[in-house]
Amino acid sequence: MGEILGLGMTHYPPLAGRDENMSGILRGTLRDPAISAEVKNPANWPPLMQREWGTDQGKAAAAEHRQVLVSGLDTIRSVIDEFRPDFVLIWGDDQYENFTEDIIPPFCILAYERIEAQPWRLKAPGMPGGANIWAEKEDHVSDIRGHKDGAKFLASGLITEGFDVCYAYRPLHLQGIGHAFLNSVAYLDYHRRGWNHAVVCFSINCYGRRVIAFRGGASKFGDTPDPEKLDPPSPSPGRCFDLGAATARVLKDSPYRAALIASSSWSHAFLHDKAWRMYPDIESDRALYAALQSGEYSRWRDTSLASVEASGQQEMLNWFCLAGAMAELKRKPSWTTFIESYVFNSNKCFAIFPP
Ligand SMILES: [Fe+2]
To answer: What pLDDT digit, counting tens, does each position of 137-155 carry?
Structure first.
C-alpha cells in the first residue's frame, strides 16, 4: 500500500536573484511602448502595488517577499523530510526548455535515473540576470537522484487505466531539467544544507497556445499574434485534474511513499492582459484559493481553460493536478498560505495535505 503526501509551492524565478532585481519583470513591462503612460504611472496603481513599489522600485518589499517565501519553503521542506518519501513527484511547466518545435507532449513523466544540471548555464524564461542569491558560479552542478522505477510504475499505471501519458528516459533539448523542477529543488534546499530525496519530474504543457509562439515566456503587448498564429491549447484544467486523480489512484496502490508537489506561482502578471500585464489576477486567484482551503474541488474541476488563460493562470495547471489528486483521496489541506503581490509578477501559495 502506498502513502501519499500532497504539497503545493512556488518556483518563482526571481527568488534566485537579488532583492534589487526582484521587480525586474514589472520593470520590463514598464518599458513596453504599447502600454500607455497612464497605466504605467505609479500614482494610478492599486494602493498595495504603490506600497510594494515604494521609492526603491520594490527592493525593500522584495526582502519581505523573500522572507515569507523562504518561510513557506522551509515549512514544506520539513514536512517532506518528516515523511521520508521514496520519491518526490513534481508537477511543473516546461517553458520551451526541454520540449520545443519537434515535440510538445501534453504530459510527460521524466523517468530519469539521475539528473545533472548546471542551473546558471540554463537561460530559462524569467530567471534573473546577474548574480544568484547563493553566489554559485556558472559551472555549479546540481546533482539530483531520480527514481526511474517509481516513474515507470506511474507511467505504466496511468497508461493501463487509460491515461496515455508520455515518458522519457533522458532529456531532449536540455542538459538536466527545466526551471520549474530545478528551482523547486534549489528552493527546498534554500539554505544549502543538502537535498537527498529522489525526484520524479512530471512535465505539464501549461503554456499551451504560447509555448512555441512566445517561447513560454513574456512578450511585448504589441507583439501579440493573431489567435490563429498561436499554438494548439494546453490540456484543459479538468484534464489535468483527472490526471492528478489517476496519479493518486495509481500511487495509492503502489509500494511507494510519494510526495506529490504542485510547483508554480498562481496568476502571472506577464500573462494577464486584463491588467495590461502589470499585475496578476488577484480576484480570480482568491476564488480558487478559497475553494482549495474548503476542499470544494468541483470549483477547480469545472474551471475552463479560457478563464485560466484570461487570468494568466497557465502555470496553475500544475496545481489542478494536485487538486485532482487530493479530491481523489478526499483530503483537505492542514495548512495553507496565500501571498498576494502586485509588483513581484505573481501571487504565491503553499499548501500541505498530510497523509
Ligand atoms: Fe514556470
So the answer is: 989 999 999 999 999 999 9
Ligand 1 centre distance from Cα of residue 219 (Å): 15
Distance, in Å, from the CA atom of 307 to the CA atom of 272, rounded to the nearest integer, reads: 11
Instruction: Inform me whether the pLDDT recorded for 75 exceeds 90.
Output: yes
Domain residues for 122?
A: 3-353
Distance of alpha carbon 70 from alpha carbon 63, whole angstroms = 10
Measured in angstroms, how far is the CA atom of residue 253 from the centroid of ligand 1? 30
317 Cα to the center of ligand 1, angstroms: 11
pLDDT bin (cut points 50, 70, 90) of residue 63 is very high
CATH number at residue 15: 3.40.830.10
Q: How far apart are the CA of 54 and the centre of ligand 1, in A?
A: 27
Domain count, the chain: 1
Eight-class DSSP state of 195: -
CA distances from 270 to 24, 97, 189, 280 (A): 11, 18, 27, 8
